[in-house]
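agent> step 3/5: call structure_predict on target 'RagB/SusD family nutrient uptake outer membrane protein' (Runella salmonicolor).
agent> reason: downstream docking stage needs a structural representation; sequence fetched in step 2, passing through unchanged.
tool.input:
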Amino acid sequence: MKKKLFSTIFISGILAFSSCENALDYTPTGVLSSSDLTSPTAIDGLVTSAYAAIGNGDMIGPIYSNWVYGSVRSDDTYKGGGGTGDVGEIDALEHYNLVTPTMGAFVTRTWQNLFKSISRCNVALRAVNTLTEANFPNKKIRLAELRFLRAHSYFTMKLLYKNIPIFDETATEADILKVSNTLTNEESWNKIAADFQFAIDNLPTSQAELGRANKLSAQAYLAKLRLYQAYEQDSNHKVTNINKGRLQEVVTLTQAVISSGKYSLSKDIADNFLPETENGPESIFAIQFTVNDGTTAGRMSYEDGLNYPHGAPQYGCCGFHAGSQNLVNAHTTDANGLPNFDTFNNKPADLATQTVDPRLDHTVGIDGHVYKYDNTKLFSNSWVRDPGVYGNFHTMRFQQLATSGSYFKLGPFMGTAKNYDILRYDDVLLMQAEAYIQLGQPANALPLINQIRERAAASTGRLKKLDGTFASKYNVKPYSATGWTQEFAFKALQWERRLEFATEGSRFFDLVRWGIAEPTLNAYIAKEKVSRTYLATAKFTAGRDEYLPIPQAEITFTNGLYKQNPGY
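tool.output (status=ok):
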């Protein structure tokens, strides 16, 4: 039996948490506090509680699933659901120009939930530091894990809000209220990086319990941070320079992960999205979830709970996260099995005649195609909640079949015990490829990108219909060294990242990192609003919409110490 971190300690028996009005005055309350803890076992429970916290978001305050912030705000998906007024804040986010600092649910609640996870780390760090290594031999390892977890939450905040306050476990309540969000971009990246570096220096390469961070996951995460940091931005979010030194760090860090031999691509991309194959060779760090663990509703993931097909009888709710026509078109391929870079979006893809990348049928629910690898119930347009507004496509990577042992329905909403990958090996390969390309070494990136494409080509086994045929015509091939210039390689890299992580919530942040969010998204809107008239007033404004506003409630709470992001 797998020995999972979250099954070793009954977390709710260690700490019970309540909601709070403001994130910065949040302290974990309940049965125990750090001042009550003296035994290594109890303090280890606080560490486990900090692991739990990174999975403690909710459907309207998500902290690990970026389907709202990184997918709907990109060209990958539409909001979906029952029209534009159904969870209207997501509609506002999709329009960009409707977002305000006073939005009460998503923008504010995500900020608060992330700071709650940071608070758990700081409580646990203070507790661990009360013990000596003689009494607690794992002291350095646990400190490193906690700093890894804290860095993870700060990194997420940085992607979402950019200008954030950063404080550690030594800060008192009075100190925290003096910490502003006016660090330079470089300063804040480096503060977060210091936690990852501490984790690299003090974690082993492997841990006995699944779910714990290790040295390699810390190296992969620091590589991701340095990749974002390499694209230097001015105060208005414009990319002004690409730092070659940071890119070289990305190469070094990702090479350490690759050369370790500990991770590899799964044979089929489907393995990344099924509970039966979770914690596989591709998973570098994942949030662990459980079902049937003795609690009322399990340790479940609900952040994607709105995103099941509405009309499918086995689900019944709620039809959000609808795949865009642009995303479907992007999967089409030419006669050589390569993307239609320049013509993909000229007209809607004719899936009866055009060839496509197999990743399409791992990502988008399409009428008559196998849905989530169950060929006895093909996806049907009748499952779509509001086709007149959002079209007939759906998403499926993070959904599970109702027959899955990981699936749990709580009222009208769905949860799953499938682990949530934060870092995968495919990301490491593409991070290294991107760094090589931007360093002027595109030849080194070619085999890395082709590994991803070759795995995509081999990922068709679960896509057959009952009669043994495929609903799509697949044709994806590796790139040739001929014509593999730096410019072409970067275009290929950008395309590969989109298809490999489609609907996983990374697309928007990639566009911002590359400095192309405004032209890409406004071109997307211009095309889409012809058939998706609800987008008629949508507009991405450069210098504002790359990041969410700082919640007004937090600015008020700090008496104006926090400064609002530009444009809001």
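agent> step 4/5: record observation. The longest strand covers residues 283-287.
agent> proceeding.
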